[in-house]
UniProtKB/TrEMBL annotation:
Compartments where located: Cell membrane
UniProt source species: Agromyces kandeliae
The protein, known as: SURF1-like protein
Main location: membrane
Source superkingdom: Bacteria
A GO-annotated cellular component: plasma membrane
Keywords, sorted A to Z: Cell membrane, Membrane, Transmembrane, Transmembrane helix
Lipid bilayer topology: Multi-pass membrane protein
Transmembrane segments: 216-237
Family affiliation: Belongs to the SURF1 family.
Length: 270
């Protein structure tokens, strides 16, 4: 078959097939470029502060449109329910979050975790926790402006750690820690405060990345052109293979005919 491929006719056919495949490949590249150029960026006004009640409702999943949205929420902090969440990174440095239990009053009633700030050491974090509970004892309303994020998954602490320690802001865990919390509504997310409370540092909470949606029709066309390019080379190979097979069959038939014509002559000599 290799000798057949090296014949001038088939070499020229291969060059033509490769040229066609290259053209199809260029068309595929063009379609991919078009898909990228026409990609639609899904822009959400996450940096505009919106009323909390317009973004999310209690006892329901966090919608994609609400994730990362800056909100303003008012409520009362429940004293005694403030916790520390350890191992939280702030610009790459591990530390503690002070997370309070806010009962929302300016939207549908429900419990909402609010992260009030970050501390690099546990002593500072515990001092801030005590101050939150002391100030909350007055029962006055507070307004928190920050970024709303969906609840995280609970994680079991390491064997060497305090069994009550937390490393995630998991609403499913917090409602079991909050005192006397029954079947009241709860928001399955939390807010990271933009302005930290006194003694703490602001939590680094960047806006969510903007998503880009590709033009999938162009991507589909690009795949088609790649298939066509491969088919052009395959078609050349198939034609060569068929030609080789045809020559073999013709040679076998010629050999059989020659053998058949030689048999009567041999019999006459005998």
């Amino acid at each position: 078959m290799l000798r057949m491929m090296l014949r001038p006719r088939w070499v020229l056919a291969l060059i033509a097939a490769l040229g066609i495949a290259a053209a199809f490949a260029l068309l595929a590249q063009w379609q991919v470029d078009r898909a990228v150029e026409q990609a639609t960026v899904v822009e959400r006004p996450t940096e505009d502060v919106r009323p909390f009640g317009d973004v999310v409702q209690p006892d329901g999943p966090t919608e994609q449109a609400a994730t990362g949205q800056r909100v303003s929420v008012t409520g009362t902090i429940v004293p005694g329910d403030t916790v520390l969440v350890q191992g939280r990174l702030n610009d790459g440095v591990a530390g503690w979050w002070v997370v309070a239990h806010l009962e929302v009053t300016d939207a549908a009633p429900g419990g909402l975790p609010v992260a009030l700030g970050w501390a690099a050491d546990e002593e500072t974090a515990r001092a801030a926790l005590a101050e939150v509970d002391r100030a909350a004892a007055s029962g006055s309303e507070v307004e928190v402006v920050g970024r709303f994020l969906p609840s995280e998954a609970p994680m079991a602490p390491d064997e060497a750690d305090d069994p009550q320690s937390m490393t995630t802001v998991a609403v499913a865990h917090l409602i079991n820690v909050w005192a006397d919390y029954d079947d009241r509504p709860v928001y399955f997310g939390y807010v990271t405060a933009t302005e930290p409370m006194a003694g703490l540092e602001a939590i680094h909470s960047p806006p969510p990345l903007q998503e880009a949606e590709l033009n999938w029709l162009n991507v589909f066309y690009a795949v088609e052109w790649v298939v066509f390019a491969g088919f052009a080379v395959f078609l050349w190979y198939r034609l060569v293979k068929d030609a080789v097979q045809r020559e073999r069959e013709e040679a076998e038939l010629a050999a059989e005919a020659e053998a058949a014509s030689a048999t009567p002559a041999d019999a006459a000599r005998d």
